[in-house]
Design a protein that fits this description.
The chain is an all-alpha fold and 204 residues long. The chain has 7 helices and no strands. The protein has one domain.
Amino acid sequence: MLDSILKLIVADNVLHSKWLNTLSYMENAGAKKISASEHKENVNIIILKHAAEEHRHAYYLKKQISKLDDSLCKTYSNAELLSPKHTKYYLHALDIAVCRYIKAEFNLSGYGLKFAAYLFVTYAIEVRADELYPIYQNILDETRSKVNVKSIILEEEGHLQEMINQLVSFSDNWENHAAEVIKIEKAMFDNWVSALKAELPITA
């Protein structure tokens, strides 16, 4: 379904601009979530790298809009996003749901809970990015669009491996917990995709 939705979006410059803006919003929201999870003093270089790269992805995606129409999507207002309510709720809701899961499974609180949530939420988002961006790029290639996200794909692959490395150190049983977090994320992502589909002028 995602493939057919993206084909419809890419075929229309206004929808495509809103799509890029929506991705930019989500990357920016992710960067802010990462920064919010930081300890006041014990900040490792991987966290700094992730926050910086997610901010850069948000900027890069925003800049791509000018290849379509530089008069569109100047802000993150609801009118300039696709499925704005679901878009703005998605990452926040995922964070809350994963925090509840981690609290129940690991009995963590305070910074320990924040850091564990950062690990698992970021892992789930990177798994999603590793699926979504290549599908999008294939459609961009097929339509010979001026837009491209190849640099983001490469960095997201690196992020995923970095998250796995940290999760290995965090828990011997990380894969089972990660699988549960992936289920939580999938339900929220599916709702978001359904909301995108409902917004399109033609049924995908």
